[in-house]
Structures are given as C-alpha cells and as structure tokens.
C-alpha cells in the first residue's frame, strides 16, 4: 500500500554506515535526466553524508542489468522491460526504487501526416526500430486493440530512427517523450503520438533502480543508506527542476552539450508527473502495476527462462521488487 510522506521525511536518511563504504552504480545509457537524482545526491554531498563513496560507472556496451546481476556493480539504472526479461532468465537482481512513476514512451509520427489518425492506420507502414522483441509485441498489440491487423514492416535503425522519421524515410517510431520528444520540439519537428496505455498496454515504471540481490541481503544498512540518498536526490529534482538540471550539466563534465534539452526534459518529467505521484514518496514502486506489465510481457512470449525458452507459466514477480529500502 502506498503511503503519504512529508517533505521532511524524504530528507531524512538512514543512519550512516561505516565511513566511506564503496558503492558502484551503473548507468543504462549516456547521462541524461533519468539519472538526475544520482548526480544531485553526489553534488549535494548526500552520499558522503550517508558514509558512502559512490562511483557512477559510465555507460558501456555491457548492459547495466548485466553488470548488476553479475556483481560488477551493486546498483544500476535499468529499463523495466530489460529488468523483467533478465529476472525471468534468473538474474540476481531486485528493483528497489522506481525512477519514473509512469510510462514515458510513446509511438510517434510526423504531425503533418493526414493519413495517420489512429493506430489501425499503421497497418502496412514502415516502422523505424531498435531491435527488441518488446517493440513487435507492443506495436502489434496497439494496432490490434484499435481494430487493425497489427502488421507492419520494420527497419532497425537505432537512434538514427529520429532522423529517418523527420526525413520521411519511415512512417513511425517509438520515443521517450521526456527526451527525444522534447528534442523534437526544440528542433521544430511537429509530431503527433499514440500513448500506449490508451490502446490496451499496461502502464509501467519505465526506469528502475536495480540492485544485486545477494549483495542487498548481505548489506542491508549500506543498501538503505544508498537508496535513500538517491531518493533524496530525485525528491530534490522533483521540487527544483531548474537547479537539478544545472547540477546534472555541471556534474557530467560537458557530456550534455544542449542545456535547452536538459532543462526541457526536466520540466517534462516534473510537469508530466513522472518523478512523483501526488501524495506518495518519490521512488515508490507500484507492485500491482509491475505485475500487470510482467503479465503483458509473459503473454507476448517475451519472458524466457534460464534455458532461453519461453516461460510456460507466469512467474511470481512479487519478489522481484521491494520498497523496503525507501523512506516511506
């Protein structure tokens, strides 16, 4: 059950652990506003205050979830679909905080397209994709929910999808509304979008803070100190998006070269209610919502076991997440 928490309580940390306990946290991508709470906590000295020496690992070709599950990092920012997929395959990882409270992704197309008015219109069109099974299940489900057949052609382009969409070489793609969506506005590229939840896809925490399960069990006090310092960082960002954006830019040593995008993204996260639900603590995981998206992934055949085979029955996902390390 979700509980009301005061601003004062969010600022409270667990008792500091032994001085300068080393903790590493892996990023799921190059630094962006989904990581803002980490950099705020680092800049404000809240990790040090909690007795922690935190190393924010740079993004690499090895996924953050893999680094966490293998014990090479104690914590990592992870995408929800990847997290569920890795857990189904037996990864030693537990989600301990929701970075965002709701789905930030959306299906987008050029705003000037008169021939696209509803998802069913996408049948037979060209989708610029990123190479995951989730995309096929997601898009076909959205189209079928609107009465279409769910058939479309895919060209895998990665981040080049957005230029291809702007140039008219593809018909639609997926984007993170609080990042690529903001950038499209800055570039003057009009878009329209379909929101997943409007077409039968369960809402989800698209980004989570994951932790190595065995390490959590062995180091509960250090884990609690770290999670609550991170929670404090995201709480600050939710209340002070402009200052948080400036901290993120300063702490990432020039990696974020477009301050308008960073500030616009922080505004979108806060104004869209992505960092905090009213009356709830920052970072709280909705266990019911987590179960619903896991069931969607299971029914789509995306969840595979350690043997690589599609799971024959729905897993018990209640143990995959916990709110026990948060201030509540």
UniProtKB/TrEMBL annotation:
Q: What is this protein called?
A: Thiamine pyrimidine synthase
The residues that cross the membrane are none
InterPro entries the UniProt entry points to: NMT1/THI5, SsuA/THI5
What reaction gets catalysed by this protein? N(6)-(pyridoxal phosphate)-L-lysyl-[4-amino-5-hydroxymethyl-2-methylpyrimidine phosphate synthase] + L-histidyl-[4-amino-5-hydroxymethyl-2-methylpyrimidine phosphate synthase] + 2 Fe(3+) + 4 H2O = L-lysyl-[4-amino-5-hydroxymethyl-2-methylpyrimidine phosphate synthase] + (2S)-2-amino-5-hydroxy-4-oxopentanoyl-[4-amino-5-hydroxymethyl-2-methylpyrimidine phosphate synthase] + 4-amino-2-methyl-5-(phosphooxymethyl)pyrimidine + 3-oxopropanoate + 2 Fe(2+) + 2 H(+)
Give the signal sequence positions: 1-19
Share an example GO biological-process annotation for this protein: thiamine biosynthetic process
Pfam families assigned to the protein according to its UniProt record, in alphabetical order: NMT1 (PF09084)
Q: Name one GO molecular function term.
A: transferase activity
- Tell me the function of this protein: Responsible for the formation of the pyrimidine heterocycle in the thiamine biosynthesis pathway. Catalyzes the formation of hydroxymethylpyrimidine phosphate (HMP-P) from histidine and pyridoxal phosphate (PLP). The protein uses PLP and the active site histidine to form HMP-P, generating an inactive enzyme. The enzyme can only undergo a single turnover, which suggests it is a suicide enzyme.
Alphabetical UniProt keywords: Iron, Metal-binding, Pyridoxal phosphate, Signal, Thiamine biosynthesis, Transferase
Q: Which family does it belong to?
A: Belongs to the NMT1/THI5 family.
The root-end lineage is: Bacteria, Pseudomonadati, Pseudomonadota, Alphaproteobacteria, Rhodobacterales
């Amino acid at each position: 059950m979700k509980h009301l928490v005061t601003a004062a309580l969010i600022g409270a940390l667990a008792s500091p652990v032994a001085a300068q306990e080393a903790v590493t946290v892996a990023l799921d991508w190059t630094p962006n506003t989904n990581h803002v709470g980490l950099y705020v906590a680092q800049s404000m000295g809240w990790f040090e205050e909690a007795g922690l020496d935190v190393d924010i690992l740079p993004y690499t070709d090895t996924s953050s979830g893999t680094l966490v599950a293998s014990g090479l990092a104690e914590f990592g920012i992870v995408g929800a679909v990847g997290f569920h997929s890795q857990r189904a395959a037996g990864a030693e990882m537990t989600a301990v905080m929701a970075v965002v409270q709701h789905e930030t992704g959306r299906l987008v197309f050029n705003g000037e397209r008169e021939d696209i008015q509803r998802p069913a219109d996408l049948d037979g069109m060209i989708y610029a994709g990123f190479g995951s099974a989730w995309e096929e299940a997601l898009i076909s489900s959205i189209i079928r929910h609107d009465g279409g057949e769910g058939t479309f052609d895919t060209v895998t382009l990665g981040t080049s999808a957005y230029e291809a969409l702007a140039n008219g070489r593809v018909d639609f793609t997926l984007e993170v509304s609080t990042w690529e969506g903001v950038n499209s506005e800055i570039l003057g590229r009009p878009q329209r979008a379909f929101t997943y939840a409007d077409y039968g896809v369960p809402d989800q925490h698209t980004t989570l803070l994951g932790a190595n399960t065995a390490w959590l069990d062995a180091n509960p006090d250090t884990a609690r100190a770290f999670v609550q310092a991170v929670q404090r960082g995201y709480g600050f960002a939710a209340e002070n998006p402009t200052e948080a954006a400036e901290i993120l830019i300063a702490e990432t040593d020039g990696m974020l070269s477009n301050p308008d995008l960073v500030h616009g993204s922080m505004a979108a996260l806060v104004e869209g209610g992505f960092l905090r639900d009213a009356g709830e603590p920052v970072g709280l995981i909705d266990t019911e919502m987590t179960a619903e998206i896991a069931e969607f992934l299971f029914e789509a055949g995306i969840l595979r076991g350690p043997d690589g085979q599609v799971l024959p029955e729905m897993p018990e996902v209640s143990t995959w997440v916990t709110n026990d390390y948060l201030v509540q």
